[in-house]
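Give me C-alpha cells for this 245-residue protein.
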Amino acid sequence: MWEMHEYDDQDALVHDLTSRLSLSLNRLIAERGKASVALSGGSTPQSLYEALSRQVLPWQSVNISLVDERWVDEMHPESNARFIKNTLIQNHASGANFIGMKTSNTDAFAAEQNLGSILARHILPLDLVLLGMGLDGHTASLFPGAAGLDRALSADCRNVCCAIQPQTGDTSPMPQAGDAKLCARMTLSLNTLLSAQQRILYITGEAKRHVLENAFTPGPVEDMPVRAVLHDSQTLTEIYYAPDS
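Here you go.
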C-alpha cells in the first residue's frame, strides 16, 4: 500500500518532511526514551538531512543507521556512512548515535550474520526507514538481476541484512578495490524494511516519477524491486515527491 504526498518544489517538500520527522522523533523519544532510523544515501536527501541537522531534538537518544551501503571504507567518497556523517550528523544532530554497515570483513557475504547481530542489537525494532529509488526500479540495494536479490526479497528470509552483488559483468564478490560501482553492497532485507513502523520513499524529478508510475502497476518484483515495498498489503509506504528544482 502507498500514499502519495506531492509538492510543487523541493523547498516545500523538505520543509514539510523536516517538520514531520522532527515531530515523530520527539514523540518516539517521549514515549520510549529512544528512536531508531535507517537512512538512504544518494544526492536526493542531502537538503533534508542538512535541515534535520539544525533541528533542536534530543539527538543523543536517536540511533541512526543505513538502509544500505557500498562495501567500501568509510573514507571512500561514495560511502553512505560518510555522506550521512557529513550532512546529517552535524550541528545539533552531532550527538546522534551512528551505527554503520561496513565491517572489517573484506567479503560482504561473509559479514552478513555478524553485522545482522550488531544491527539487531542497536537499531531493531526500526521506527523509520527513508528509502530512495533508482531509474532501474531498485530501492535500498535491491537491484534487478543482482546476485542475492531473491534471498533478500524472500518472505522466508530471516536475515536482518543481506549482501548483494549488482550486475556488473564481473562475477567476483569483490571486484577492483575501491571501485564503488562494481563492489558488493549490504542492504537491509525486505522483511526488515517492512518491519519498520514508518516507511518513506523520497523521489524527485519527472524521470523517476515515470518509473514510479510503472512500479505502481503489478509485475515481477525482480524486475522492479521497489514494487515489493509498494505492493505489500500489510504495510503503508508514504511517497514524498517533488519535481527537480
